[in-house]
């Protein structure tokens, strides 16, 4: 194991302990204040929780590489628990090729075409919920809307789509240690892994969807044919549980800050800003690791080659060194520079998909609702990587 230099702030806190995962924001201040780089003795990893250092590490993808895994496991020493993602867990030049291929499919043009259909679905769903007045914004809305739009866009088979969230939960847990949170997400869910493998096969994808487009593009580029199912798998892993919780956090923010919802109602064009600020305020993807490809100095600390470095994206997004009143949800603030989608070459490929989903939901509530009130304590679903909501009771009054 790598040993830390002696003057490095050493913390005994465990960022994957259930107590931490249940309220990560309560611990971020201690991480940020301890130093620009800290050593987490329990795992033998470095960590950064301040905005500037997190952003700088994400920008320097050569030094802070992804091909050795973006979880705790170092792929140069340990067998990855699934075949590495050809996007997330790669470096250039391979990453440049796969990213370009996928970027042509997840294009602004494609999203422009989808927008009217997605808007109609958002309008119908929100209308039915506003009529109910009381509903669970996690189970009746956040888990429902992405499933109404995203699997059809990929062209996924109909049978077994509910396995998508189970699979993503396992994978996001898998970026952390093999703790109880990880093990429990696997129990009885092993078939989700087999289902995803089936769903990614060419013969199981519908014509006209993004999944089949990946197969065609891989053929056209002359890439190895086993790249196609693995790239389709990235859509399935990264595209559902993330947006589900992004919409959950948007609703939590709007319910908790009625004066901000009032601004949104007054001007529904603020919907994009409201969603962006909710990503900064309650970032769904809390952390990712990188691995150092050489010795690197960060603010006077030398991090040796081959070190795992845990980057606290959600903490960076509430760093008071960067943001005024960081713990407040303020839809008019310029939140655009947040790192909730990452930063640099690996910045979320699907960010425009997520933004479209979030914007449409925010705009429909702005148009259709007079008020959104929290009607019970939100219930959290613990995950080693994601900040997730399993229940969010709300009361909504229509116009
Ligand atoms: C951003 C992200 C999260 C999880 C999985 C993947 C990507 C993937 O590419 O498989």
Report on the structure:
With 399 residues, the chain is an alpha+beta fold. It has 17 helices and 13 strands. The strands form four sheets. The chain has a six-stranded mixed beta sheet with strand order 1-2-3-9-6-4, sandwiched between helices. A three-stranded antiparallel beta sheet has the order 5-13-10. It has a two-stranded antiparallel sheet with strand order 7-8. Bound molecules: 3-methylbenzoic acid (OVV). 3-methylbenzoic acid binds next to helix 12.
The number of distinct β-strands equals 13
Structural class: alpha+beta
Terminal Cα separation, in Å?
A: 61 Å
| Mean pLDDT, all residues | 97
Helix content: 40-55%
Please state the overall shape, judged from the principal axes of the Cα atoms. Answer: globular
Oligomer: single chain
Low-confidence stretches: none
Largest sheet: 6 strands, mixed
Spatial sequence of strands, sheet with the most strands: 1-2-3-9-6-4
Number of helices: 17
Which ligands accompany this protein?
3-methylbenzoic acid
Order of helices and strands: EHHEEHEHHEHHHHHHHHHHEEEEHHEEEE
Strand content: 5-15%
Radius of gyration (CA) equals 21 Å
């Amino acid at each position: 194991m790598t040993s830390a230099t002696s003057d490095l702030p050493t913390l005994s806190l465990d960022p994957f302990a259930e107590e931490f995962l249940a309220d990560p924001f309560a611990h971020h201040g201690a991480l940020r204040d301890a130093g620009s780089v800290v050593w987490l003795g329990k795992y033998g990893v470095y960590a950064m929780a301040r905005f500037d250092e997190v952003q700088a590490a994400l920008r320097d993808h050569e030094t802070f590489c992804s091909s050795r895994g973006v979880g705790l496991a170092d792929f140069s020493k340990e067998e990855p628990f699934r075949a590495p993602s050809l996007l997330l867990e790669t470096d250039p030049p391979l990453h440049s090729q796969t990213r370009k291929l996928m970027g042509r499919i997840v294009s602004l043009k494609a999203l422009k075409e989808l927008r009217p259909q997605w808007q109609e679905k958002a309008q119908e769903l929100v209308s039915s919920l506003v009529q109910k007045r009381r509903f669970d914004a996690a189970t009746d809305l956040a888990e429902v809307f992405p499933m109404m739009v995203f699997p059809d866009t990929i062209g996924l088979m109909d049978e077994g789509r509910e396995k998508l969230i189970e699979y993503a939960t396992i994978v996001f847990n898998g970026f952390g240690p093999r703790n109880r949170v990880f093990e429990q997400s696997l129990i009885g869910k092993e078939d989700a892994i087999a289902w995803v493998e089936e769903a990614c096969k060419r013969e199981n994808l519908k014509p006209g969807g993004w999944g089949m487009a990946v197969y065609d593009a891989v053929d056209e580029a002359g890439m190895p044919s086993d790249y196609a199912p693995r790239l389709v798998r990235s859509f399935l892993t990264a595209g559902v549980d993330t947006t589900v919780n992004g919409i959950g956090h948007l609703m939590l923010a709007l319910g908790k800050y009625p004066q901000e919802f009032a601004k949104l109602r007054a001007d529904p064009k603020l919907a994009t800003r409201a969603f962006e600020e909710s990503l900064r305020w309650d970032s769904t993807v809390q952390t990712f690791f990188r691995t150092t490809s050489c010795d690197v100095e960060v603010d006077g600390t030398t991090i040796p080659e081959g070190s795992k470095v845990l980057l606290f994206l959600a903490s960076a997004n509430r760093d008071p060194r960067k943001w005024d009143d960081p713990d407040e949800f303020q839809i008019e603030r310029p939140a655009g520079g947040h790192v909730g989608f990452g930063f640099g070459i690996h910045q979320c490929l699907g960010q425009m998909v997520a933004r479209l989903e979030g914007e449409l939901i925010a705009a429909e509530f702005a148009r259709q609702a007079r008020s959104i009130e929290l009607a019970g304590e939100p219930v959290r679903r613990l995950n080693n990587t994601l900040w997730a909501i399993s229940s969010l009771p709300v009361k909504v009054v229509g116009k």
